[in-house]
Design goal:
Blueprint lengths: L1 H11 L8 E10 L5 E10 L5 E9 L7 E11 L2 E11 H7 L3 H8 L18 E6 H8 L6 E11 L2 E12 L1
Antiparallel strand pairs: 1-8, 2-3, 3-6, 4-5, 4-7, 7-8
Keywords: Signal
Pfam families: DUF1091 (PF06477)
InterPro entries: DUF1091 (IPR010512)
């Protein structure tokens, strides 16, 4: 949680952080293939200035009514973890009330490019369609300090870990 306070203090402080956000890699890991699969999960670079993230899940056991998500963001420099941000939340509860400020801020990075826009139950596959790096840059540029990061998002349904989404990115 110290990293989160660091990010917030910098965003509210008199020194503005600018910069450039860039995707480096994405990995979609399935823990339970009987429950779900990824149809696709990739980064695509159209040209030097336009890069986006897309993924689509194929859910085999519907409806989804109980989901807990854990998100860790870590900055890595010189192979040491300097900052560690870890948040765990009930995704169905969050989608009902959207009261968690930090989770809501993270949700804004992809919400308009996703079909995760209603409360549980979910009776369909999950899609993130062409989340552009420019959109994320607008949201994180004044909050996230420069560095090389990775974000691990772990999704559990009915108390069983189902998948992980790992995104590597750089803020400079």
């Amino acid at each position: 949680m110290n990293a989160l306070l660091y990010f917030i203090l910098i965003a509210m402080g008199p020194i503005a952080i600018g910069g450039h956000f860039e995707f480096n890699n994405v990995r979609c890991l399935v823990r339970d293939r009987k429950f779900m699969e990824f149809d696709y999960c990739f980064l695509r670079s159209v040209n030097r200035t336009y890069k986006y993230l897309s993924l689509k899940t194929k859910l085999h056991k519907l409806p989804i009514t109980n989901t807990v998500t854990s998100v860790q963001v870590r900055i890595r420099e010189n192979k040491r973890i300097l900052y560690n941000f870890d948040v765990r939340f009930d995704a169905c509860k969050f989608l009902r009330d959207r009261r968690n400020v930090i989770v809501n801020w993270m949700f804004q990075t992809f919400s308009e490019f996703s079909n995760i826009n209603h409360t549980c139950p979910y009776h369909h596959d999950i899609i993130l369609d062409k989340v552009p790096v420019q959109h994320i840059n607008k949201i994180v540029q004044s909050v996230v300090p420069d560095g090389r990061y990775y974000m691990n998002s772990s999704w559990s349904v009915d108390g069983i870990p189902r998948c992980d989404l790992v995104v590597y990115f750089t803020k400079s």
